[in-house]
Automatic annotation (TrEMBL):
<feature type="transmembrane region" description="Helical">
    <location>
        <begin position="168"/>
        <end position="190"/>
    </location>
</feature>
<comment type="similarity">
    <text>Belongs to the amino acid/polyamine transporter 2 family.</text>
</comment>
<keyword id="KW-0812">Transmembrane</keyword>
<feature type="domain" description="Amino acid transporter transmembrane">
    <location>
        <begin position="44"/>
        <end position="144"/>
    </location>
</feature>
<feature type="transmembrane region" description="Helical">
    <location>
        <begin position="71"/>
        <end position="94"/>
    </location>
</feature>
<feature type="transmembrane region" description="Helical">
    <location>
        <begin position="339"/>
        <end position="360"/>
    </location>
</feature>
<dbReference type="GO" id="GO:0015179">
    <property type="term" value="F:L-amino acid transmembrane transporter activity"/>
</dbReference>
<feature type="transmembrane region" description="Helical">
    <location>
        <begin position="122"/>
        <end position="147"/>
    </location>
</feature>
<feature type="domain" description="Amino acid transporter transmembrane">
    <location>
        <begin position="150"/>
        <end position="426"/>
    </location>
</feature>
<dbReference type="GO" id="GO:0016020">
    <property type="term" value="C:membrane"/>
</dbReference>
<keyword id="KW-0472">Membrane</keyword>
<feature type="transmembrane region" description="Helical">
    <location>
        <begin position="293"/>
        <end position="318"/>
    </location>
</feature>
<feature type="transmembrane region" description="Helical">
    <location>
        <begin position="398"/>
        <end position="419"/>
    </location>
</feature>
<keyword id="KW-1133">Transmembrane helix</keyword>
<dbReference type="Pfam" id="PF01490">
    <property type="entry name" value="Aa_trans"/>
</dbReference>
<dbReference type="InterPro" id="IPR013057">
    <property type="entry name" value="AA_transpt_TM"/>
</dbReference>
<protein>
    <recommendedName>
        <fullName>Amino acid transporter transmembrane domain-containing protein</fullName>
    </recommendedName>
</protein>
Length: 450
């Protein structure tokens, strides 16, 4: 019999009882939950909204104006809405898949159900590398604004063991990035011309309704849009730590609607006033003073993004190591040593990524193309087919035919964007490394753009 929060009472059939702590509930992923150990099922639907938004809203919004510069306002908004629709469907599939298969914690568990051991390892390695790259991007963004101490602060906060304990950072992060973005948006509308434009007696924005970008620039811009929405793999662990997973869809729709509206509003206004002189990240478009003020306000949000993705990657490895062990939910030495070891190691690897490719826009597009697409499109199409193909084929309906066709289309589209976007991103990284001073790997040059 299930409790109202979605946990199953009792401990029958479990091989691992957490030391001497009395069990208060049992979870298909974490095993017996005790009062002495961490409560991994303590995130309400509002906390879920905050965590979902913070996995996506942060770094992505800072690149939207430059995306519009590449594609033009009209094609850019169309691409943004399409990507939003596809990722919303992908995220919805995660929620339904989790309800049908409560033993799923991360995308590798889904991969094992669909493709066996090979699927588990491919998706497991993919999601781990993906989170490391995302953490590296977060450390890079904070280093642009602060240039020191970002790794230490992020690692410390990421070391809280449950999402329920760090959901406050998501609220703070969403609020700070939104406030900073609004300050920059208002400032660019009030200034005479962007700070990056040459000082002339007359200046007018050269914004484009329809752009004429090359294939490489266009596909890179689309990859950056994907990055702005590719928190999708993080929705697996978020769903796993919800008190009531049946409220997942409510949180998802609020999250996706809000960030899409914010992306369109902020991206369009900043690009309209700045044109091709928009800075990347966009906080630098309104001059040195406003940029410093905006970064000061945004830094908690940028740190929060890094904290959450560091937590995701560390928690994935932690659960993988201790799953079905009494140490997963007990305050034992092995529990703490494993957990702190995971957070520290992931932070070090992420720092190396941030140092190796210290170019914000190119790193964003590379993540979106190579890893974000692979983690956000193809698996969800396969997951829907896994749950619905066999039964639907026996008695096909129009709805089943349409959804099956859609799932296959998502798989094909994701594969194309992954290959084409990766190519475009690599080309741009090579060009930027040659053209931008201080952009070589592991350079000690100041990247604060002050």
């Amino acid at each position: 019999m299930s409790e109202p929060n979605g946990l199953e009472a009792g401990s029958a059939g479990r091989p691992s009882k957490p030391l001497d702590s009395p069990p208060i509930a049992q979870d298909a992923v974490f095993g017996e939950i005790t009062e002495e150990g961490p409560n991994y099922r303590d995130v309400g639907w509002l906390g879920t909204v905050a965590l979902m938004m913070k996995t996506q809203f942060g770094l992505g919004v800072l690149s939207i104006p430059q995306i519009l510069d590449s594609l033009g306002i009209i094609p850019g908004i169309i691409c943004l809405v399409v990507v939003a629709a596809v990722t919303t469907w992908s995220n919805y599939v995660i929620g339904t898949f989790k309800l049908k298969h409560p033993e799923v914690y991360a995308i590798d568990d889904a991969g094992e159900l669909m493709f066996g051991r090979v699927g588990r390892e491919v998706f497991g390695v993919g999601v781990c590398v993906y989170w490391i790259f995302c953490s590296g991007s977060g450390l890079l963004s904070t280093s642009i604004g602060l240039n020191r101490m970002s790794a230490i602060a992020s690692c410390s906060l990421a070391s809280f063991r449950t999402l329920g304990k760090i959901k406050w950072t998501a609220w703070v992060g969403v609020g700070s990035v939104f406030t900073a973005s609004m300050i920059a948006t208002i400032a660019v509308g009030l200034q005479e011309q962007p700070s990056t434009a040459s000082k002339t007696s007359y200046w007018a924005s050269d914004y484009k309704l329809v752009g004429n970008a090359s294939f490489t620039k266009a596909i890179t811009a689309v990859s950056s849009i994907i990055f702005a929405y590719d928190g999708t793999p993080g929705f697996f662990p978020i769903a796993a730590e919800m008190r009531n997973p049946s409220l997942y869809t409510r949180s998802l729709l609020i999250c996706q609607s809000a960030i899409t509206a914010i992306y369109i509003a902020i991206g369009t206004v900043i690009y309209y006033y700045c044109g091709s002189y928009v800075a990347s990240p966009a906080l630098g478009s309104a001059g040195t003073l406003i940029k410093r003020v905006a970064y000061g306000i945004a830094l908690p949000g940028l740190v929060a993004s890094t904290v959450i993705v560091l937590h995701f990657s560390s928690k994935y490895i932690f659960v993988r190591i201790l799953r079905n062990s009494e140490h997963l939910t007990a305050n034992s030495f092995k529990h703490w040593a494993t957990w702190l070891g995971c957070t520290s190691a992931i932070t070090v690897f992420s720092y190396l990524i941030a140092s190796g490719i210290p170019i914000f826009a190119d790193l964003v597009s590379l993540i979106g193309a190579l890893l974000g697409t692979f983690m956000s499109f193809q698996p969800m199409g396969c997951m829907w087919l896994y749950d619905n193909w066999k039964n639907g084929r026996e008695q096909p309906t129009l709805k089943w035919i349409l959804l099956s066709s859609w799932s296959i289309l998502v798989i094909v589209l994701g594969s194309f964007l992954m290959v084409a976007g990766t190519y475009g991103s690599v080309v741009n990284i090579i060009a930027s490394t040659k053209a931008t001073p201080g952009s070589s790997a592991w350079s000690c040059a100041d990247n604060s753009n002050s």
